Amino acid sequence: MALAERLQRLGTETAFSVSLAAAEWGAKGNRIYPFHLGDLNLTTPSNVVAAMDRAVADGKTGYCPAAGIPQLREALAEDIGMRRGLQYSPGQVVVQPGGKPVITKFIQAVMNPGEEVLYPNPGYPIYESQIEYFGGVAKAYRYLPSPTGFNIDLDQIRSLITPATRAIIYNDLQNPIGSESTDAEREAIAQIAIEHDLWVLSDEAYFEMRYSGTSKSIASLPGMQERTVILYTFSKKFAMTGWRLGAAVGPVEIADTIAKLNTNDESCTTHFVQYAGVEGIRGDQTEARAMLDVLVERRDAAVEVVNATKGMSVLAPEATFYLFPDVTDAMAIVGTDDLAVFAEQALHATGVSFCTRRHFGRPQPGEERQYVRFAYSGISTEDIREGLGLLQDWIGTF
Prior knowledge:
CATH class of the largest domain: Alpha Beta
Order of helices and strands: HEHHEHEHEEEHEHEEEHHHEHHEEEH
Largest sheet: 7 strands, mixed
Strand content: 5-15%
Number of strands: 14
CATH architecture of the largest domain: 3-Layer(aba) Sandwich
Strand order of the largest sheet: 2-10-9-8-7-3-4
Number of domains: 2
Helix content: 40-55%
Shape: globular
Radius of gyration: 21 Å
Structural class: alpha/beta
CATH topology of the largest domain: Aspartate Aminotransferase, domain 2
């Protein structure tokens, strides 16, 4: 029997395919250095875990409101607003089982079949997958390398917009490239959205995963709060990737729609997990802040070894936990111009497992350099130095 035709348009999170290849190589007795998946091998803060335990003991194990428990919606409205210089009401916050459902429900709420949504490429692959799955036209915009990192090609964005364009997905603290917008770039995106009356999904999963400076939200710019939905997640800041807790924050009209989608999709986010979220926001954040100290140590170690490796170079990001080094010359040294071949050879020669640029969208015309992504969130500083050192030695043998 035939399955639904739309399933042919459904993509996947391609980092998991790299995980499978690494697991298969590891199952043969080989040492693996996991740089491929943006998970954390750090533990959830103990006070957050204790809050969940208390909620279970208190019987918070049944259904709860589709939009989330009032305590969590209030805490999120205050915290997200305070950090962005905005005012949000609890009615503008809809709790989700993770950050990823915000992407799906935003697209369902604002896009009709045949309409266009702009999204970043390279970027999180679920953007493209969900736009196309729900019958939209996914239009990728690119980043251009610069001496300070990567810049959005604003001219390309302007050229992509048509009367059918409905929304733009904007990931400021960006996965996979680890960069963030300048004030001028952020303001330009806002101007484009206002000029063309576009909805904006601002993916702010890494808003508080930074080592210096202060994050800024496009929602804070004049005329943007009323057209922007913020994607918030507990996964990164509180090392809660497996807990599945996040939120959509935006205008009441879209918040109410997303809450209705919650009712249809999962009824509600796990009741007792939401009390853990309240503790994360309202409670002691000492352990959460300490994770940043660990991550910056890992970042510095990774940047040092990468930049000492023949044919590789990268800038140290101020946020996220990803490096996106240029490996064009390293590939030439080992004798290949195929990223997939380079990644496989590196895995088998050194045990270092990583994603490539091609795991984050189809390359666009004019891309001349080759890049890979190293996630340093799930590997210790010692193993970072050891694994990347092996990669350095391997390339040095050619």
